[in-house]
Design goal:
Layout: H1 3-8, H2 15-29, H3 34-41, H4 45-52, H5 60-70, H6 74-79, H7 86-99, H8 102-109, H9 113-116, E1 118-129, E2 134-135, E3 144-149, H10 150-156, E4 163-169, E5 182-186, E6 197-202, E7 205-214, E8 217-221, E9 230-233, E10 240-250
Parallel strand pairs: 1-4
Antiparallel strand pairs: 1-3, 2-7, 4-5, 5-10, 6-7, 6-10, 7-8, 8-9
Amino acid sequence: MDELNKVERPHSSSGGEVECFSSRLTEIIGSDSARSFAMKADLSQTAIQKYSIGDSTPNVERLIAIAKAGGVTVEWLVTGNGPKYQKDFDALVSQSHTDKSVDVVAQMATPSGFLAEFALIPGYSVQVSAGWGSEGSDEVEPSRHLAFRKRWLKWRGFAEKDLVVVWAKGDSMEPIISNNNTLLINMQRTELTDGNIFVIRNENQLWVKRVQVMPNAWLLLSDNPLYKAIEVPMDEQHSFQVVGQVVHISKDIGD
């Protein structure tokens, strides 16, 4: 099963937990409409409606957005434990500076077992071309974070610091990579290897291509047969930068 899909349904093992979460979500929505609350959380109305009736559960990133929109702590939203309102938790932190109750606050600030399972990988508003080339970006700050299980990263041998998330643009890598798919890139892997998929920069163009390494050239291959291979002779390779290897692809299905 796709590891990111596992993150998407963190408490699917227990119907009771989902029901409790949906009840807490309904509570913080209150008299607001689903549409109004969805706008506050920067999520779709359909998603909020599904979460509130228990048809679906959000991933970690969406949990954080929902908690922020509702003014509650993630801990309370997920488990029902700890301070409910973020302002109450902030007040405890402030009080700790005067009554020395640092240990109590530190204990309450410790992530729950659920949250401790995940690493938040930075995602950048960059589209890499699964086509003829997409404009690169010099963006430094991530626009969002996506959650991956730490044990999965360890099993794959990945270090959090080496990973970034970008998005695909185009159809040249169909069927394995579709337009707007989420790509997890390992920037530590910059040595091209036959058959693997890499993100490659040439000046201000970014490509995501399968690679064939030949004695005197690289071939940047598209899985879609409608696109021709791009040959990069040895004497031109200095102008290309290997950003990293694509190590995970996530696809959205439906709303």
